[in-house]
Every structure is written in structure tokens, then in C-alpha cells.
Design goal:
The chain is mainly beta and 107 residues long. Helix content is 8%, strand content 43%.
């Protein structure tokens, strides 16, 4: 969700817990519209034991414009074929200082 009322953030972690898994991630983040069509792509590289926390607008500066026909509703798809990545998804309503979060994938 990304519109005038709600903002979405994503946290990604490359835990690299095993010795033979100490490698940089090559994480693909896709932004999809309500029809499932890809409207944006970002590659995020996380070092071993590294993390990233981003408002989706930082990764996709035109997200509001791209999702406007769907009232700000869309989907993100996150994939990494190089290592196991853990993710968290947060939706914020800044006017009410409310934050909802959930474990997105991994682990």
C-alpha cells in the first residue's frame, strides 16, 4: 500500500548463519500492480550479516504515481537465488502514528 494515507516499508536481512553461506545477497525486489504486472524492479545487495530498511518510495520514487490507478494498492515480490534472506513488511499511517508489521518471508 502506498498512497496519501499509508506508506509501506520493507526490512531485509542476510543472516548468513553458516560458514559456507557467507556471501553477499543479490535480492530482487519487484513492484507489481493489482493486475500482477511488474511496474518496477530494484536489486538490493546485502553483505553477509547485513540488512536494509527502506521506505518503498526510496526504492521506487514514482510508486504513488504508478499505483494511483489502483488507489495505491499493489504487491511486492522479493526473491534471492544466492542466499536465504529474511524480510519484514510494515505499513504506516503517519497521521495516526500507527504501524502494522508482519514477517514477510524467510526464516
Amino acid at each position: 500500500i502506498y498512497n496519501q494515507q499509508f506508506q509501506t516499508s520493507v526490512g531485509l536481512v542476510n543472516p548468513s548463519g553458516e560458514k559456507n553461506c557467507l556471501r553477499q545477497s543479490n535480492t530482487q525486489v519487484l513492484l507489481l500492480n493489482r493486475n500482477g504486472e511488474t511496474i518496477g524492479e530494484k536489486i538490493v545487495q546485502l553483505p553477509p550479516n547485513g540488512s536494509a530498511w527502506m521506505d518503498l518510495k526510496e526504492w521506487f520514487p514514482t510508486i504513488e504515481e504508478k499505483l494511483k490507478p489502483w488507489n495505491g494498492m499493489g504487491t511486492i515480490k522479493i526473491r534471492d537465488k544466492t542466499c536465504r534472506v529474511i524480510g519484514f513488511h510494515f505499513v504506516e499511517d503517519p497521521q495516526k502514528t500507527a504501524l502494522a508489521g508482519c514477517h514477510l518471508f524467510g526464516g
